[in-house]
Every structure is written in structure tokens, then in C-alpha cells.
Amino acid sequence: NSILLHYVVEEEHIRAVAEEDNGKVWEDACCEFFCSPVADNTYYNIECNCAGTVLVGFGSGRENRTLAPVGVMKGIKRWSSLGDQPFDTKPATGQWQLALVVPFTTFFKHDVPSLDAHTIRANFYKCGDKLPKPHFLSWNSIELPNPDFHCPAFFGEVICK
Q1: Helix (H/G/I), strand (E/B), else coil: 145
Q2: Residue 71: which residues within 8 A CB-CB, separation 6 or more?
Q3: CA-based max dimension of the chain
Q4: Residue 1 vs residues 37, 52, 126, 138, 145: alpha-carbon distances, Å
Q5: Using CA atoms, how far apart are residues 80 and 53, in angstroms rounded to an integer?
Q6: Are strands 30-36 and 43-49 parallel, antiparallel or unpaired?
Q7: DSSP assignment string, 39-89
Q8: Would you say residue 134 has pLDDT above 90?
Q9: Is the dihedral of CA 141, 146, 149, 152 positive or negative?
């Protein structure tokens, strides 16, 4: 009834300024999972900074995204090796880890009772827009001149068993 995400990250600097869910977590040291659990030309962006602050949006493109309600956000379990308190930019001291338990109820615009034996379209990202060295990494290549994670055409296939 959930997707389990576990990130292990090495980077030069870390930052976790976004204090509240659905805030600007992408500006911090951030890991992201974008997915289309249903083939209807929409997708969810599940983004989390290194202190466990989460943003969840839904829509068909970058603009006019609908943010998840508070009740949905409370259902996402999160753990960070860096703790859960906000902090400003500082040097990283080795790896940090982030784990999320994302219940299917996070897909708040769809009824997703199971993903067993399904193939979904998705991509995994690492970013840090306001770190000293801004970076934008993806699991599946994005063949565009500038980074843009909101491009489902470049999602890969994830086979759920």
C-alpha cells in the first residue's frame, strides 16, 4: 500500500531552509520522485529536502499544479540522517540518507489500491537550486538544453512487483 524510497547522497554542501510541507524544498538539498501511477497524461511530483520537508504536487505540466492537502502530507512517513530541523547552507560531512514511505493515498487525485504487477512511468531527481554549486541530476536522461524535471516525456519505466 506504499512506495518506499531510500536515497543515499554525497554532495559538497547541504541546506534545509524550507520549514513547512509544500514549501520551496527544491531550493535545498533535495531528492525528488516524479511518477504517473495512472496513464492519463498527469503526474505527481514528490520532493523532499534533506530534513524531511515534503512537497507533493499534481497536474499535467509545470504550470497550475495542485498541491496535496495537509491530511495527505501527514500520511507520508519520512526519516533523514540529518534530523528534521531546518538549517542554512553548510558543508556536508559525508553521506546523508533520506527514507520516505509514500502511501498510495498520496496520489490524492486517483484511486490507486495497488501497483502490483504494474509498470509506471517515473523519474528520480537530485537537485539543489540554491546550494553554492546548483545541480540538477536525473535517473533517466532529459534531452533538453536546460534542466526541466517537469517533462514526463523523459520519464522511464518502473516495473512494480
Answers
A1: coil
A2: none
A3: 43
A4: 13, 21, 25, 26, 38
A5: 10
A6: antiparallel
A7: SSS-EEEEEEETTS-EEEEEESSSSSPEEPPHHHHHT-EEEETT-SS-EEE
A8: yes
A9: negative
CA distance 36 to 112: 11
- What is the per-residue pLDDT for 161? 86
CA 160 to chain centre: 18
Instruction: Tell the residue number behind the cell numbers 505527481, with chain if given.
Output: 44
Residue percentage of the chain with pLDDT more than 90? 96
Residue with the three cell numbers 511530483: 45
Over 2-44, what HEC string results?
A: EEEEEEEECCCEEEECCCCCCCCHHHCCEEEEEEECCCCCCEE
Please give the pLDDT value at position 102.
98
Sign of the torsion formed by the C-alpha atoms of 84, 85, 86 and 87: negative
